[in-house]
């Protein structure tokens, strides 16, 4: 996609959201179905079903996707798409790769140590880019990508999550 195509697609959306701010508030959803034969949960991604299960460090056999890996993959995907859109809007030629890694102590999720946190202790996101952009343009590209990456900003925000349940 080139700059003008992206802008022509986004222009009417931006106009709508300026005129009707509530139209910019959307709800994204994900659903899963508990596995019937094994310890798993199948999640629809919009493109395919992904079966998630335990990471090998917590008793899985490695044949199913790990939700922690999926979180990092969502971060990489979001950062990559955001960076690409910003680069297109700035007429910058950029290629390369994005990597995310996260450190967690599985003793927390296994209930072995009440002081061990459940979840990632830290996440690192790195960009290895090939570009003819100047150092200043590259720094601004990364800064803008960070600012507008939905998954990155969500992880940083410490948002409130409501949990409910029901029994059939």
Folded structure, characterized:
39% of the residues lie in helices and 23% in strands. The protein is an alpha+beta fold and 168 residues long. It is built from five helices and six strands, in the order αββββαβαβαα. The chain starts with a helix and ends in an 11-residue tail after the last helix. 10% of the residues are buried. The protein is globular. It has a single domain, classed as GMP Synthetase, Chain A, domain 3 (2-Layer Sandwich). A four-stranded mixed β-sheet has the order 1-2-3-4. A hairpin with a 5-residue loop joins β1 and β2 (40-44). α2 crosses α4 (135-148). The protein has helices at residues 3-19, 67-89, 106-109, 135-148, 150-157; strands at residues 32-34, 40-44, 49-53, 65-66, 94-104, 120-131.
Quick overview of this protein structure:
The chain has 168 residues and is α+β, with helices and mostly antiparallel strands. The protein contains five helices and six strands.
